[in-house]
Each structure stands twice: as structure tokens, then as C-alpha cells.
Amino acid sequence: MNIIAVDDEPLALNDLIRSLKSLYPSCEPLSFATPRAALEHASSRPVDIAFLDIEMPGMSGLELAKRLKDLHPDAHIVFVTSYEQYAIDAFALHATGYLLKPVQAAELEREMTFIYERSPQEPSKRISIRTFGGFEALVDGEPLAFKRSKTKELLALLVDRRGSGVTMREACATLWEDVPHSTSQRSYYQSLVADLRSALAAAHVEDVLVKTWNNLAIDPHAIECDSYRFLDGDPIAVNSYRGNYLPAYSWAEFSSGAFRSQPR
Predict the structure, then answer these.
(1) Same structural domain for residues 11 and 49?
(2) Domain ends where: 84, 116, 148?
(3) What is each CA distance from 237 to 79, 114, 262, in whole angstroms?
(4) Are 103 and 142 within one domain?
(5) Is this model's pTM higher than 0.90 or not?
(6) pLDDT tens digit string along 99-122?
(7) What angle do CA 54, 60, 65 make, to 5 degrees?
(8) Three-state SS string across 100-153, please?
(9) Which of 43, 39, 61 is CA-nearest to residue 52?
């Protein structure tokens, strides 16, 4: 983890470095009093995260962020400033975060949690779900394998419900829109549930599925999901949303409207 902090105010810079070291004891963040010194370092060394003051003599933090992004496109930029009015400009640059001085430890940890999708003390969740731009379910980085494509859609529906259960009839009405409910449809749905349970069991993550009588749900706390992080205010997820929530499934349009109405 290669972290730099840039601020022309020595006290603020030292406080930030101390907080970072307290949060990540094994980390050795580097501090720079001028943007040019930071750019000189970044020209030959990797930068994963850059904490930047905005108002600095010679070069603003906004300009520095642009130059750092040219050198390291994947670097996370977190602005640290005393002025709220810069927030719009900051996020126009696709900044990862925005902290107001004096930086509070809890807020700093929140930003680091967003960047690395978990707090330093929290173990990584094995199941990762992507809903923006398409649906993908991974366990330990490997795609879940299903016998039927409709099983994948059933999982997508459960993820969309975010822990709220669906009955057999509700699921059938959603998965087979405009098709009358029938005995054969119910039988096929039971096959989908069995396939889903089998796929999760094969990956040793069957506990993510919560099944009661005539009701099926997933445990939302057991998965990492981009749309969940969006709703929780994660700036990385917010920046990654392009109006493309579960685009393959027409039933997801209702949720898509809810995402589009969220303030960004």
C-alpha cells in the first residue's frame, strides 16, 4: 500500500500521517510539503492513495490530482481541506473521497474502508457481486457455476431484494413475466433453487442463502456488492454507476429508477 500525503501546513500533515499509521501500523505513508516534491516522487514510484490538500501555493491540489492521475490512473485521490466549496470540483475529477480538516479518525477509517472495501480489522467477504454493467457472482475470485442461466437470474433477483425474502409465486411472476403460473413453472423453479443451493454448497458458501417455508432470501451481510455500497454512500461505487444496473433483466428497471433518483 503506497500512500502519500501532500499539505503545506506541517501540523495538519503530521496529524494525518499519525492517524494513517495508527490505522495501518504496518504502513509507511510518505509526506510532502509541496506538490512538486510529490510529483517528483510519483514520477518514479507507485502511488496507490494520495491525500491532497487543495489550497497550496504554486499548484493547487486539484491540479496535482490531475497530474497524479496522468502518472497513475488507478490511484485513489482523497482531498483533505478546510473548505467545503471544493467538493463539487473534487468529485468532477472522480476523487475517491473528501475529508474536512481537522480530519477525524473515524472519517479517515471510513475513507480507507471504501477504498479497500473493508476495515483493517474486518476479514474480506468471500462472495463478491457485481450488478453495474451486468451481473457477475464470484467466490474467492472465481465465477459461480450454474447448470441453468435462469439460476443466475434467480440469484440476481435475491441480490436485488437485499435480504428481503421472495415466495415461490413472487419469484415465478418476476422471472417469467406475462407467463401464467402453472405446475410446470413451479417445478422448474424448484429445480432452480436446487441448482442454486448446489452451486453455493460446491463453493462452501451455502450459508449465504436463507431459506424458510415458501420463502427464499440471501444474507446481504455475507456479500460484497457494488449496488449495496452505492446505497451506503461509497464514493467509489457512486462514481462507477452509469445507469446500468442489472441491464439484462427487465424486472430490474424498478430498482434502476431508484438508483437514478439517488443524489450523486
Answers:
(1) yes
(2) 116
(3) 17, 9, 13
(4) no
(5) no
(6) 888 888 888 888 887 776 544 444
(7) 80
(8) ECCCCHHHHHHHHHHHHCCCCCCCCCCEEEECECCCEEEECCEECCCCCHHHHH
(9) 61
